[in-house]
């Protein structure tokens, strides 16, 4: 499936190339590497929205639809879905595009929950 219209007009929160150091023994990218990139994208979004430090407190389950290969361009999109008093739920999607092709395919998605914290590590109100 190609990237839907909704993604074509949006900038990714993060875009990186998958490198050999990020692979398992079979040459596929580690799921943990991709999860880390997705958490970083959600964290950037949470910090920008809350105007300060925010930490990951939960992530829902992920299912991988297809592997990411060395050299693939990985684009991660993040969108705030819900804002509470101190927390934010951020929907994140990861897409891969082979280095020499134009078609992007969704690899996985997840929802991350962040809590805004103050300088003492205590929850603080989100100021969006």
Structure in words:
- By secondary structure, this protein is of the alpha+beta class.
- The protein has one domain: Hotdog Thioesterase (Thiol Ester Dehydrase, Chain A), CATH 3.10.129.10.
- The protein is built from two helices and five strands.
- It has a five-stranded antiparallel beta sheet with strand order 1-3-4-5-2, covered by helices on one side.
- It is elongated and about 45 Å long.
- This is Acyl-CoA thioesterase.
- It holds the Pfam family 4HBT.
- It is an enzyme of class 3 (hydrolase).
- Belongs to the acyl coenzyme A hydrolase family.
Structural class: alpha+beta
Q: Oligomeric status of the shown chains? A: single chain
Tally of strands = 5
The helix content is: 10-25%
* Total discrete domains: 1
Q: Within the largest sheet, what's the order of strands?
A: 1-3-4-5-2
CATH names the topology as: Thiol Ester Dehydrase, Chain A
Which CATH class? Alpha Beta
Radius of gyration: 15 Å
Shape: elongated
Task: Write down the overall mean pLDDT.
Answer: 91
Strand content: 25-35%
By CATH, the superfamily comes out as: Hotdog Thioesterase
Low-pLDDT regions: none
The major sheet is characterized as: 5 strands, antiparallel
Order of secondary-structure elements: HEHEEEE
What is the CATH architecture assignment?
Roll
Distance between the termini: 34 Å
Discrete helix count: 2
Enzyme class: hydrolase
Protein name: Acyl-CoA thioesterase
Pfam family, one: 4HBT
GO molecular function, one term: fatty acyl-CoA hydrolase activity
């Amino acid at each position: 499936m190609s990237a839907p219209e909704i993604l074509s007009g949006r900038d990714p929160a993060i875009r990186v190339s998958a490198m050999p150091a990020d692979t398992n023994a079979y040459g596929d990218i580690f799921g943990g590497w991709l999860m880390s990139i997705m958490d970083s994208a959600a964290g950037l979004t949470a910090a920008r929205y809350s105007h300060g430090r925010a930490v990951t407190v939960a992530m829902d389950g992920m299912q991988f639809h297809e592997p990411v290969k060395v050299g693939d361009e990985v684009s991660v999109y993040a969108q705030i879905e819900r804002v509470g008093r101190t927390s934010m739920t951020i929907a994140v999607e990861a897409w891969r595009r082979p280095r020499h092709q134009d078609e992007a395919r969704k690899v996985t998605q997840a929802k991350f929950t962040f809590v805004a914290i103050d300088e003492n590590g205590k929850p603080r109100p989100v100021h969006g």
